[in-house]
Design a protein that fits this description.
By secondary structure, this protein is α/β, with parallel strands linked by helices. It contains twelve helices and 17 strands. It has two domains: 125 residues, Alpha-Beta Complex (Aspartate Aminotransferase, domain 1); 242 residues, Type I PLP-dependent aspartate aminotransferase-like (Major domain) (Aspartate Aminotransferase, domain 2, 3-Layer(aba) Sandwich). The mean pLDDT is 97.
């Protein structure tokens, strides 16, 4: 018999009732160190007092009016985002996939608006993940995402990750945009080297196509800058943001240049809930915290410490851990084929450390950006104990 909640999730056998900073507490009061952060969502940790205060204050005024009327918080947050980025304009959504849908529509509309409706196709990369709508699973093209959902929407092709020549060869007169994650998340924490991002930008300029960056997971301070692409100096035409932008409250945003957004006029796109008063109150509180002097420097410092400590696992457990990947506080440990990432994640959870599996047999390590050195030490000690358990279990199985 089917459960009341549609059974599409393989949930871990634990339920949390309370959170504080980098900690979560289950229904029995046991404490877990959260290095998953709701899959890079809880950027400021749990129950951050300023986010709670902003939400409570707004909840006593007005929750929702729809986009039929002005929403002052939108004007404020959009101005702050555009002032701090490449963008000139922002469309607010409820989620990352909605931000991606806006980006895809905007890129197609750009070419139609400029008299080239035949340019509608997107080039994406193998191993990418852009959400679970039909358009975004078609963009990623992964068998596990598209299987059973019938013919995919036309207009999406994939090229091998990191293959610049294949990308060049795939561009045609129908290409509208290149879609890329500066750091692949679900694909296994695979950063795109800065020179490669710059090369993609040059290709787009050369062929008159748009560059869409998916920074849903790697943006909003996760790498030590507001957006990950800033490290490369290459700027997108359109960018999708979500996850950390709301600090745990459902919020997404599609950022764009004036040029890229020229075709998005009245009635071309919309959302009932997107950018409502509650989301804007929290989003502005997140920006308050992320723009405090020293915030990004703290992320960079902690990421250096975390990477250094994780590298010790490679030396200590060469039969289990192959390498450390990623940027900032978006790191991953790739395991040897003999070690299964899901097993490590489950074993770490039993030791009260929360992690996230990813593709390519990688374990994602995504602490809140307010993480401290003491939390990193505890997490790596737990990882070390988990690796010892896995090594001992493998030795027993081999006998």
């Amino acid at each position: 018999m089917i459960t009341p909640v549609l059974p599409t999730y393989a949930r871990a056998p634990v339920t949390f009732e309370k959170g504080e900073g980098p900690w979560l507490f289950d229904e029995t009061g046991q404490k877990y160190l959260d290095f998953a952060a709701g899959i890079a969502v809880c950027a400021l940790g749990h129950s951050h007092p300023k986010l709670v205060a902003a939400l409570e204050a707004q909840a006593r005024r007005v929750w929702h009016t729809s986009n039929l009327y002005g929403i002052p918080g939108q004007e404020e947050l959009a101005k702050r985002l555009t002032d701090a980025s490449f963008a000139d304009t922002v469309f607010f959504t409820n989620s990352g996939v909605e931000a991606m849908e806006c980006a895809i529509k905007m890129a197609r509309k750009f070419h139609s608006h400029n008299g080239n409706p035949e340019r509608y196709k997107m080039l994406a990369f193998e191993g990418s993940f852009h959400g679970r709508s039909l358009a975004t699973i078609a963009a990623a093209g992964q068998e596990k995402l598209v299987k059973g959902f019938g013919p995919m929407p036309d207009g999406f092709d994939q090229v091998p990750f990191g293959d610049h020549e294949a990308l060049k060869a795939a561009i045609t007169g129908e290409t509208a945009a290149i879609l890329i994650e500066p750091v692949q998340g679900e694909g296994g924490i695979r950063p795109v080297p800065p020179q490669c991002l710059r090369g993609v930008r040059e290709l787009c300029d050369e062929h008159g196509i748009l560059l869409i960056m998916d920074e849903i997971q790697c943006g909003m301070g996760r790498t030590g800058k507001l957006f990950a692409h800033e490290w490369s100096g290459a700027t997108p035409d359109i960018l999708a943001s979500a996850k950390g932008i709301g600090g745990g409250f459902p919020l997404g945003a599609c950022l764009a240049t004036e040029r890229a957004a020229a075709g998005m006029t009245g009635g071309t796109h919309g959302s009932t809930y997107g950018g409502n008063a509650l989301a804007m109150a929290v989003g502005n509180a997140v920006m308050d915290e992320m723009t405090v002097p020293g915030f990004m420097e703290h992320v960079v410092k902690m990421s250096g410490l975390l990477r250094q400590r994780l590298a010790q696992l490679v030396d200590e457990f060469p039969d289990i851990v192959e390498e450390v990947r990623g940027e900032g506080l978006m790191l991953g440990i790739k395991l040897k084929p003999e070690a299964v990432n899901g097993t490590l994640v489950n074993n770490a959870r039993e030791r009260h450390l929360l992690l996230v599996p990813a593709g390519d047999n990688v374990v994602r390590i995504l602490p809140p950006l307010i993480v401290g050195a003491e939390h990193i030490s505890q997490a790596v000690e737990t990882l070390s104990a988990t690796c010892i358990d896995m090594r001992d279990s493998a030795a027993v199985a081999a006998k």
